[in-house]
Each structure stands twice: as C-alpha cells, then as structure tokens.
Amino acid sequence: MLEFALDARRGSFHLDLFARFTAEWTVIFGHSGAGKSTLLRLLAGLDRALSGSARVVHRGRTLADTAAGVWAAPGRRHTALVAQQPALFPHVSVHANVAYGLAHLGRETRNHRVKEMLQLVGGMDLIGRYPPSLSGGESQRVALARALAPGPKLLLLDEPFSALDGTSADALIDRLQSWVRQNGVQTVMATHEAPDAFATGAEVALVEDGRLIALGPAEEVLARERERITARLSDGAARVK
C-alpha cells in the first residue's frame, strides 16, 4: 500500500494530492504539466513538500513516514525512481552502472544479479558498452536494470519507455509486471500515453493541474480518453478513404 497527502508549490504550479494506492501496479495518467513528475519526485524523497505527509507501507512495514519524521534517502527506504532521462554514469560500463547499488554483495553474486537484470530488460548485449554509445531506448533499459538490481520495495517509473517503440515497450512492460508481481514490488508509473495505461491493465490515477480527479480501473477512469482516441482514429481512416 502507498498512502500519501502532499502539498507542494513550484512557481505558479500547486500540487495538492491525497491518495491511497492498494494495487500492485498503479498508472498516474495526465497530460504534460499535470504534476506527474513532481508527484513521483516527492514520493521518492528527491523533493520536499511544503506540508502534508508521505507514508509508504509494504506488507505491513512502514518504509517512510514524513509525519513521524522518517524521510530517508531513496536508497535507504527501498525506493527506486526511473526518470525519462536515464542519467547513467557516462565514464563506466553498463555492467558497472547496473552494479552501482550492489556494493554489499560478493563479486560472484553481484555479477549474477547484473546479468539477471539486464536479461530482464532485454539488454544483455549492452553489458560491456559505455553510456555515450547507447541509443535512447538502450539507455532506458539500462537505467531500469540499475533501479531493479538492489531489489526495491517501491518502484517509481516516470515515462521510462518513451524512447522505445510501442511493440518493444509493451514487451518490456509485460516482463516487468511479471517480475514485480513475483518479487512483491509495488509500482507506480507516470505516463501521458493512454495506450500505456490500458496495456498494463492496472489501477489508474487521473491527475489534472496537480489534483487527483479519479482513481480506479483504466476502462472506467479513461473512458473519455478512449473515446477521444477512437474518434481520432475514425477521422484519420475517413480522410484516407
């Protein structure tokens, strides 16, 4: 369960949100400027709210609770954030990037974990390369592997598949959903692409102008968005004819 109440301002933008996510996978849906990235950064502990609280509970264990004064660094509270811009370390190999959070493991275990995560994201062929030589999609795969490697309990995804084509993104989401389900990782993914929300079959939180508008199944919450997409496709087909 992820429960939070946040109040934050960024210039003229005001985010004021309370929600309780109980599903294993929740999609934060909203168009550009809705507050999706701000929300994820607040939940990750990278930004601070003016007031309110963020409480992260996993299987009965509180990982973070600002109301109680517990607001540890993301790594210490078992939270991982994968942003749209991968921010890999350019001077070390893909292997070293993925192994970054695994210093506590022995070499053999660490190497096995790195390969396991790269295999999961479809990036085993990248293991010896360096970030400057990677494409945008390859970099996003490596960033995801690096985030998963330490075994987070809460995974925050900020449009992490934007550089992948639709087929590749769908395949990666399928593998990732299976992995988080097996490992008990609660996942929150922000996107402005309705197909991503429908593809996951997940709980959807609709956010507009820093406010939570609706929370529930994608088919219900995004019914209007589905109608808009269908109408656009129909108009396009009519023009082609």
Explained architecture:
- The chain has 241 residues and is of the alpha/beta class.
- It has a single domain (2-240), classed as Rossmann fold (3-Layer(aba) Sandwich).
- It is 37% helix and 27% strand.
- It is built from 8 helices and 10 strands.
- It has helices at residues 36-44, 94-98, 107-121, 136-148, 166-183, 194-200, 218-221, 223-240, and strands spanning 2-10, 13-21, 25-29, 51-58, 61-65, 79-82, 154-158, 186-191, 203-208, 211-217.
- The strands form 2 sheets. A 6-stranded mixed beta sheet has the order 6-7-8-3-9-10, with helices on both faces. The protein has a 4-stranded antiparallel beta sheet with strand order 2-1-4-5, covered by helices on one side.
- Strand 7 (154-158), helix 5 (166-183) and strand 8 form a beta-alpha-beta unit.
- Helix 3 packs across helix 4 (136-148).
- The longest helix is centred in the last third of the chain and has 18 residues, at 166-183.
Outline:
The chain is α/β, with parallel strands linked by helices and 241 residues long.
Characterize the overall form. globular
Q: Determine the N-to-C terminus distance.
A: 50 Å
How do the SSEs run, as a string of H and E? EEEHEEEHHHEHEHEEHH
What's the architecture in CATH terms? 3-Layer(aba) Sandwich
Can you tell me the residue ranges where pLDDT is under 50 for at least 5 consecutive residues?
Answer: none
